[in-house]
Design a protein that fits this description.
alpha/beta, Ribosomal Protein S5, domain 2, 3 domains, seven-stranded mixed β-sheet, 12 helices, 21 strands, about 25% strand, globular
């Protein structure tokens, strides 16, 4: 039988090596490699001594008309991101920066479910029970009959769930990095412990049809800490984003087996906790200065939701050999590409200027449809002339300067019309998409970024 042996595992990316080093070769992080003892290996091959159990295969058509209920928290933004509610037996992982509001959101959600006759248990490995009660009182939820526990031993948690008298339906683990399996010779929070703890809890949850909500810590790069396999084990991965200096919080779905990915929910941090924002477009544009140069309104699409945000650009002459490029809420590499296209294809001189770009409101935009709005904001900031206040922009820009079509332009224009915008600068549309345009909206279709420069200089 093989003996247990030592491995050296990076606590940031999960890479395994045979010896210790100060720097991880996979992710480049320093001082993240820790020694872990691996269990004895299973012998290779199954051999012919023992036969396997015959599995009974189910027919996909057997219950085709059956409906599968979800646990709705009645927090509209959370239910939207999860695809309409929490599926029984689902494993959901939510990550975010410290203090962003993960525990607050989950406490509000499980209290709402408990009041809706869904038995829930909130297990915290970071707070005592009295601390959770204090937070619930501050949120006005102190009268909720929610079951609380402060524990970190996975064996104790699983046994308690099995012995629950009220047929537990939902379990919250805050956080998975504090849990440990007593048969694993590693400290809590290490790659081995996080993987083993999550596997044991998920196995129990699937067998008993109990939904599990995990809270996960994040690295300084914003990714969920621990092994990447943790995100493969769960059914849904949510990221809670936002700047603590802003009151807005964005809940983004990056993986969802029971609903759309890239869906977002918008919350506002208030004294009574997280309050959902039903019309985020109006909120993001509420403090916009319509006569300011370098400001353009982008009609973005996050998941299935159209979202209007303000793109702000500032272009100033630079005395540095390498002018500064500062970006908040967008991809800095894509900004460099847009600047290069404007200089090469349109003759817009930006190489000797400092460029600052900001997506107002603390939200992050990931889709390439923001290219046209960014280009318009840059040219407006360079010329010092404000863009028309009733115009929205969207479209993808290629390296040849062509403006490419983007997904669902009708939804973007419909949302723009609701908020009072009368004009739109968009890519050339197909005949099918052109028939679905909302009435009363003046649309300017462009095929090349040169046409955008001519339109703004006219």
């Amino acid at each position: 039988m093989a003996k247990a042996h030592k491995n050296y595992v990076c606590q940031s990316c999960g890479a395994v090596s045979s010896r210790w080093g100060g720097k991880c070769d996979s992710c480049g992080e320093w001082n993240t490699i820790a020694e872990e003892v691996s269990e004895a290996a299973v012998p290779k091959g199954m051999g012919n001594k023992q036969k396997g159990r015959v599995i009974e295969f189910a027919d996909l058509r057997a219950e085709s008309g059956k409906t599968y209920p979800r646990y709705q928290t009645r927090i509209g933004e959370l239910d939207r991101v999860t695809g309409g509610g929490i599926v029984p037996g689902a494993a959901i992982l939510i990550g975010g920066d410290p203090g962003i509001g993960k525990s607050t959101l989950l406490l509000q959600a499980v209290c709402a479910l408990t009041k809706n006759n869904v038995p829930c248990v909130y297990v915290s490995g970071e707070e005592a029970v009295d601390q959770i009660r204090m937070r619930a009182d501050r949120l006005g939820l102190g009268d909720t009959p929610l079951k609380l526990a402060s524990a970190t031993n996975v064996r104790d948690i699983i046994e308690s769930v099995k012995q629950a008298e009220d047929h537990l339906k939902l379990l919250v683990i805050d956080s998975i990095q504090t849990m440990y399996v007593d048969t694993v010779d590693s400290a809590p929070g290490t790659v081995t412990q996080v993987r083993a703890s999550a596997q044991e809890i998920i196995r129990m949850a699937k067998s008993r049809n109990v939904a599990v909500l995990f809270v996960g810590h994040v690295t300084k790069d914003g990714q969920i800490a621990g092994p990447r396999v943790l995100e493969h084990l769960v059914d849904t991965v949510l990221y809670f984003e936002g700047d603590r200096s802003h009151q807005f919080r964005i809940l983004r779905s990056v993986k969802n087996r029971f609903g759309p990915t890239d869906e977002i929910g918008v919350f506002e941090m208030a004294h009574q906790g997280l309050v959902e924002v039903e019309n985020p477009s109006a909120l993001f544009l509420s403090q916009r200065h319509e006569d300011a140069a370098g400001s353009a309104v982008l009609a973005a699409l996050e998941g299935t939701r159209p979202l209007l945000v303000e793109v702000q650009a500032l272009v100033a002459p630079s005395s540095l050999a390498a002018p500064r490029r500062a970006v908040l809420g967008w991809d800095p590499n894509r900004l460099a590409m847009i600047v290069a296209v404007l200089e090469t294809r349109c003759g817009v001189s930006l190489s000797g200027h400092d460029i600052f770009l900001n997506i107002a409101g603390g939200i992050r935009i990931n889709e390439p449809a923001a290219d046209v709005a960014v280009a318009a904001a840059l040219m407006s900031a360079l010329s010092g002339q404000a863009l028309p206040s009733d115009t929205v922009y969207f479209g993808e820009i290629g390296l040849a300067g062509e403006i490419r079509q983007v997904a669902q332009p009708d939804l973007r224009l419909k949302e723009s019309g609701k908020l009072g915008f009368e004009q739109a600068v968009i890519p050339n549309l197909s005949k099918k998409a052109g028939k679905a345009m909302p009435a009363g909206m003046r649309v300017r279709e462009l095929g090349h970024v040169r046409e955008l420069a001519e339109l703004l200089s006219a």
